[in-house]
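[job 0412] stage=complex_fold ligand=2-acetamido-2-deoxy-beta-D-glucopyranose status=START
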Amino acid sequence: MLFRIGLLFIVAYFSACFSEFVDTPDKTYFASKEELNWTDAKNACAESGLELVSILNTKEQELLETFLKEYQLIPEYRWNGYWLSGIRYPNGTFYWDTTGTKVGEDVNGWALGEPNNGFKREHCVEITLNKGASLLAWNDYFCVEERRYLCQSPRKDGPRGQDLDDYSYLTEKIDLPVAKDEYIIPLDFVNTRVQTPYV
Ligand SMILES: *[C@@H]1O[C@H](CO)[C@@H](O)[C@H](O)[C@H]1NC(C)=O
Ligand SMILES: *[C@@H]1O[C@H](CO)[C@@H](O)[C@H](O)[C@H]1NC(C)=O
Ligand SMILES: [Ca+2]
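[job 0412] stage=complex_fold status=DONE, emitting structure tokens
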């Protein structure tokens, strides 16, 4: 009996650890303390009744930036981002897994020169610091890498994503079938969004 109580305690302790988020009064966004690869991060959000963050418009980008800034969660350096729900589909186009909508349709948050599909293996979207700047921006990165991640409360309305049958392709090389030109980032994004740099 004692043994079983001990075991229960250990299980409860570990599951509490694994669903650990930064403690904030915010009920919209949740930042993890732990670092997981993209698929594990997706599952960790789901286990808490949440979903990985999608950014569908400028307002949502600003809300997220405000959240990260308010709770001092801005990445300290460029290689220290958070997973979002964006993934590259096998055909090369990015979609928000959470909503099933195209990434960058209404707000273009890509960092300068991103997405660049490094080593043909960068299929998951993180939010991190822009190259050489203190602004937050999106980057495609290796899905196998462990990152902190951002969950959101599921939307009450709006588009819903459908889980893919299989996410294992995310670790594989994807040769982009589209012209490289389509991946050149409009400079006005970098110049116009977020006027006040983070301190
Ligand atoms: C990529 O795949 C998605 C999902 O199957 C599809 O909806 C979309 O039209 C495709 N995009 C292109 C450019 O082929
Ligand atoms: C993440 O790690 C799990 C094991 O914890 C593994 O099953 C899964 O394939 C990994 N996903 C990626 C995208 O690397
Ligand atoms: Ca990249």
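The pocket of 2-acetamido-2-deoxy-beta-D-glucopyranose (ligand 2) is lined by residues 37-40, 143-144, 170-171 (CB under 6 Å).
[job 0412] exit 0
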